[in-house]
Amino acid sequence: xxxxxxxxxxxxxxxxxxxxxxxxxxxxxxxxxxxxxxxxxxxxxxxxxxxxxxxxxxxxxxxxxxxxxxxxxxxxxxxxxxxxxxxxxxxxxxxxxxxxxxxxxxxxxxxxx
Length: 113
Prior knowledge:
This protein is of the alpha+beta class. The protein is about 25% helix and about 35% strand. It has one domain: 2-Layer Sandwich (hypothetical protein PF0899 fold), CATH 3.30.2320. Helix 1 crosses helix 2.
């Protein structure tokens, strides 16, 4: 479960930002997660709640925004939507795909007070 390490990194980043801004509390954290990132949103939420206890982020809402997956098909020579890394090209059925979107995970915003 690598989501625990990811949640710890998100909380640490949010706390560093909140402390630098002189905040008393973190209200919410918005995280973008790509469909091809191999991160389970439910597991990340569970881990975020666990690791934020006793921090400025305790009780904060973790909002997850999903980013669709896409890949370049070398056979079709164009970008196509995919839901998983193991999906074939929806146009030609081939597997010569290079992911171009949906592999990322990043903190998009932190709301503090």
